Structure formats: structure tokens, C-alpha cells
Amino acid sequence: MDRNLKWVFTVPTCIFVVAMVLFPILYTTILSFHSWRLSANIPWKFVGIQNYVDMFTDSRFLRSVWRTFYFSFVALSFETLLGVSFALLLNRKFRGKNLIKTAFLLPMVATPVAISMVWKLMYEPSIGIFNFWLRSLGMRRIDWLGSTSQAIYSLIIVDIWQGAPMIMLIVSGGLTALPTEPLESAMVDGASAWQKLCKITLPLLSPTIFTAVLLRLIDVLKTFDVVYSLTLGGPAYSTETMNILAFRQAFEYMEFGTASATLVVFLAIVMLISFLLLKIRSWVEVDL
Amino acid sequence: MMNATAGSRPRKIIGRILFILAVLVILIITLFPIVWMLVASFKTNAELLNVKKLFSFSFTIKNYVSVFVERNFMLPFKNSLIISTSAVALSLLMGLPAAYAIAREKMRIFSGIILVIRIIPIITFLVPWYLFFTKIGIAGTYTSLIICHLIMCLPLIVWIMIPAYESIPLDLEQSAWIDGCSRFGTFIRIMLPLSAPAIATSSIMAFITSWNNFMFALILCNSKTNTLPISIYQFITYTNIDWGGIMAAATVITLPIILIALFLQRYVVSGLMAGAVKG
Prior knowledge:
The complex is a heterodimer of chains A (288) and B (279). Chain A is 73% helix and 1% strand. By secondary structure, chain A is mostly helical. In chain A, helix 1 (5-31) packs across helix 12 (256-287) and helix 3 (59-89) runs antiparallel to helix 9. The longest helix of chain A is centred in the last third of the chain and has 32 residues, at 256-287. Chain A starts with a helix and ends with a helix. The model of chain A has no long low-confidence stretch (mean pLDDT 86). With 279 residues, chain B is mainly α. Chain B has 14 helices and no strands. Chain B is globular and about 75 Å long. The interface between A and B is large, with 86 and 87 residues.
């Protein structure tokens, strides 16, 4: 019995994974070559690569791809910058450090839909606190979620609020694990604080930062809850990411063939980027 | 001591003040939305809708009465609790032995597969499952929701548990085998107790993930199995947004998670860091 135990232990998980992961992916791929609407009670119709052809000539789809990248890039850049700065700033002993650490956990774990509702109230054009502050400062009101040029940045702000603490947490962990000898010898040599930071701390920290960015990116590309509850992709599709587009194609328009094609491309993009970065990370680590 | 060489006394004091200011600003920005949610949940709707009364605040629990009595939030609360705990329990049942086997037998391929599942957007699963569950007539039941939540919880638990089992020395088990204990016996009697902190970490993370899930609930819940995140939409109609009710509901939904973060902070931190250490 003992020799077979490893199979007894892993088989339930394997069966579950095959049934629940592999089957849906195959099903989605096959469905993406068909035309099928749930509402009309008609069988699948094979259309070849028509869904994909339509998709790449559809400006709404192309813009959603671009927007997914743009959203992720802008949000992640700020999250990395702020997260790393906070981690460096807080990397010392002081009273209340634990309080700060606990406070930082809350944006990461608090239910995104519930928190989005709070942001929705704060962004509210007439009764929201942000516009109240703007007016108190004598500035013009901003239509935070209702303007096509502003809405995506309002969503990015919420994402930064959720994501920067994550980067900070991981980078803080990396900072405490750094070897102290290089910094000590630099101090003996009379290096300035700035030199120590740029020449020693940051290079030593780069694998950790890279890991933090990678982990966060996997989530940012898939942002759904915040976008859905704040703008639903609007106004005028201006915040529609691939995730939201696929969701609407499937569950609003009931065009499951089209939605499946979008999902296949979305899946491919997310996997490709993740694996590219994982690969790069393993090179970075070997170098050190 | 480190600063003894750098700068004079006044400069040090200014630096200290700037540091405290920076920390305070960060703290306020981080906590503001959560505090605002709490404050707004105790305001009347008349106060919420009047921008001149943004900071006045007559304590009322009317919003909570509306959440629990008029909207009957006890039902979604119960649903969320049932679905999340079942998903975590089943994930532990399947995931712990699997993680142990993967760690001990060095089945590297499986940890790769687990990583892939964590990367795949869960919306990819949603369309086929929705169609499948509808076809066999279980869409909207607890079963369908628990199955969906398993796909988030199980990989998370296996992911956190593999390094935990790898870090437990093999000698401990081997000496028990020599004493005649079966491999299954050592797993139950030695490995499980020794990995208790990691089990706590992984369960807490899986619970939070399941509790917060919105997308599955959006498609699969019916009026009897509504979970908490979806129930907040009861307060939004075409003609009216009941902000007070929404804020009270948001507080009710988030409170268990905030309590977990406050009282089980150590586990939450190590859970969030789990992916960063290895992989």
C-alpha cells in the first residue's frame, strides 16, 4: 500500500484538475470555432476561424486588448514605485511599525466589491468627498467615473491602492533578508546614503522586486471586480478590459462562440506574459 | 549610531519629523476608504446626500437594521459561510495529501501545473461550467458554487503546503517507519501536526479568496444561494441608490476579513508572501 500511496494521495486532485481545468479549456477552444447563442435554441454551427477574423477586425476588441495592457502598465508602474519606496522608508525600527503593517494588509484582503462601493461613493460627482475637496481648494469638479478620458485613471487609482501594499509587503520581506556586509563595507568606504541605495540595496533587491511585480501583474491583468462594480466597462467602452469584454459577450449578449474566441486570446496573452516573466526571472536569479 | 556621522542635530530632527509626516500620510491614505465606509454606514441617507453635511454625523443604526431586517442579509451571510467553509474543507481534504506526496516524491511537474492554474483567468472556466451546470440542472445550487470555489482554493492550498512539507526533515518520518508506523500513519500523526501553522495559513488565505469571490456568484447564484458580495447590489435599483444601506452592507461583508487580518495577521502575511518566496 505504501508504495502506491503517492498515487492515492494525488489522484483525487488530479481528477479534479483534469475535469475542472482541462475540460473547460478544451471546450472553450472548440466552442470558439463555432457560432452559438444560448438564447436562440439552435445547435452549434461550425464557422472555422470566422470568430477570430471578426475579432481582429473589431475595433472594440482591439481597444480592449490595448486597454488591458495600458491599465496594467500604468497601475503596476505606480504600484512598484510606491511599494518599493514605502518598503525602503519603513525599513527601520520605530514605534507603531506593526500598526502600519496591519493597516497595509487591509486593502489587500478587504472584499473588492465592497471596497469598490466605497470608492464609488467617494468618486460620486455631487456628493463624493473628492469633488468636495477639489471645490474647497477652488478647483473644477472632476467627473471621476463618468468621463471617457478620466474613468480609466479613477480605476487605476483604486488598483494602486490595493496593489502598492502587496509590492511593499514582499519587498519589505526581501529587505530584511538582505546580507548586511556589503552595506557595512560601503559605510567604511564612506559611501553616501544615495550611493548605498543605488549601488547596493536596489541591485541586491532586484530579484525580489521582480517577483513582486510578476505576482502583482498576474492579478492586474485579470482585474474584474473593481471594473465591473465601478464602471462596467463604460462610459462608452472606455474602461472595457478583455476580462470585462469576454464577460459581457457571454453573459449579456449570450454570444458564447464570440466570447470563447475572446477568452482563448485572453488566456493565451496572460499565459504568455506570465511565462515570459517567469523565464526572465529564472535568468535574473542565476546571474546573482 | 548610524547617523552619528551624518549631519548635525537640527538636521536629524527635521529628518525625523519628515519621516513621521510621511508615515502618517501613507497611513491615512491606506485606511481612509475603510474608515469612510464605517463612518458612512452610521450616517442617515439625508446626511449622505447633502454635501454640506459631509462631516456631520448623527449616529444611526438604521442602515444596519435595513441590511439585516429588510434585506435579510442573514441568508447571504449563511450562504457565504457555508460555501467558503465547505470549499476550504474539501480543498484541505484533497490538497494536503496531494501537497505531501508532491513534496516527498519530488513530483515537480505538479507544482508547475498548480502554478499554471493560478495564472489562468478564472473567467475562462466560467463559460463552460455555466453551460455544463445548467445542462445537468445544478446551476445556482451550493454544489455548483462550492465546485467553482474549489478551483481557487485547492491550488492555493497545495501551493502553500508544498514548501511547508519540504521543510520538514525526512528523518522524523523515517524513524517512525522503523518503529512500524505506516506511511499513512506518519502523515496523519507526524506531518499534519507539524505543518499546523502552514495549514492555518493556507486555510485562511483560501477562505479569504472564497469569501471575496464575486465573478462566480454573479453568474451562478440564485435568490436562495446569493453570497454576500453579490447581495450588495440589492441596494442599487434603476431609480435609487441607497448609499447608507450599501455602506452598512459593505461593512458587514468586509468585517470578517478585517477581523481575520487584525487577529491572525501573522498567518495572512505569510500567506500573501507564499508565492514570493518560491516558485
